[in-house]
Design brief:
Distance between the termini: 47 Å
CATH superfamily of the largest domain: Tetracycline Repressor, domain 2
Radius of gyration: 20 Å
CATH topology of the largest domain: Tetracycline Repressor, domain 2
Largest sheet: none
Length: about 220
């Protein structure tokens, strides 16, 4: 599990200190990554001493695990995706829901963006926690998306086709996060409002569904 041992006893001062550490460490890890974030820097930003961090988290590794768990929970609570409920929908609607939730999770502003920023750091400089992240966060989503794409293909397409279609869907979503600085220079803006994110999600879903169904028709020897 992506959780660290919690040493505090839940008293108000202890909870306040722990929260300060989580806030400061979340921002530092998101901005600089695991390797370039030190306990000393976190303690300075949080306004606590190093002993307090060790007391509550037992060191940098446990602190990082707690940060990942905390900000993942916050992001998932704000933009929930119940895979069991969504699985009852038509594949087209499942894909739309998947794209919309993922896009909002990574394009949220302020605190909501921290988990996406932490993930971006993991993609650039993987830590020993990446295996845990893959199993607990990414694999369930990939399994869900793969099943949805396979149903849209509606044939016996090879696994490689399914994987490439999944990569294309996710790639479109993450382009709007990873390419935000380029977008600012090209379009004189970096952020999208809620209505624009909804429009982007709808476009990505429609674009992807059309492409996947076109591949399926091509495999059956049909034309569009």
């Amino acid at each position: 599990m992506m959780r660290a041992n919690r040493r505090g006893k839940g008293t108000s001062p202890s909870s306040d200190t722990r929260h300060k550490i989580i806030e400061a460490a979340g921002e530092s890890f998101a901005d600089f990554g695991y390797r370039h974030t030190t306990i000393r820097v976190v303690s300075q930003h949080a306004g606590v001493n190093i002993a307090a961090i060790n007391y509550h988290f037992g060191g940098k590794k446990n602190l990082y695990l707690a940060i990942l768990d905390y900000w993942r929970t916050k992001a998932f609570e704000k933009y929930p995706l119940d895979l069991n409920v969504v699985a009852t929908e038509l594949p087209q609607e499942r894909l739309r829901t998947f794209v919309r939730v993922l896009l909002f999770r990574i394009l949220d502003e302020g605190e909501g963006s921290r988990f996406a920023r932490l993930m971006a750091q993991e993609f650039i400089q993987p830590t020993g926690s990446l295996d845990v992240i893959v199993e607990e966060v990414m694999r369930p989503l990939f399994t869900f998306l793969s099943a949805t794409v396979r149903q849209l293909l509606n044939d016996r397409s090879p696994e490689q086709t399914v994987v490439l279609c999944c990569a294309s869907v996710v790639g479109q979503v993450f382009q709007f996060y990873l390419g935000r600085h380029v977008m600012r220079r090209l379009l004189n803006r970096e952020k999208l409002n809620r209505e624009e994110i909804e429009a982007v999600a709808d476009h990505i879903a429609r674009f992807s569904i059309y492409a996947i169904e076109a591949i399926a028709a091509e495999n059956r020897g049909e034309s569009r």
